[in-house]
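Technical annex, item 7. During the second reporting period the consortium partners agreed on a shared format for inverse folding records so that results from different sites could be compared directly. Each record opens with the tokenized structure and is followed by the designed sequence. A conforming record, contributed by the partner at site C, is shown below for reference.
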């Protein structure tokens, strides 16, 4: 049974998203809880809002 192009694309997309998720988790591990909820200025959202924690 051969794999179709659409199946290969789906598998590569899933692999890519898993890599992005891993990178995001590593980045979040590097900041403290207080930094996660800190507002840089009045018009900015904090990290917790952006990642919807």
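Designed sequence (site C submission):
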């Amino acid at each position: 049974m051969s794999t179709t192009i659409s199946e290969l694309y789906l598998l590569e997309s899933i692999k890519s998203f898993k890599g992005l998720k891993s990178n995001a988790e590593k980045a979040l591990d590097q900041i403290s809880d207080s930094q996660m909820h800190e507002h840089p200025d009045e018009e900015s959202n904090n990290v917790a809002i952006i990642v919807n924690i």
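The radius of gyration is 17 Å. The chain is about 65% helix and 0% strand. All partners now use this format for quarterly exchanges.
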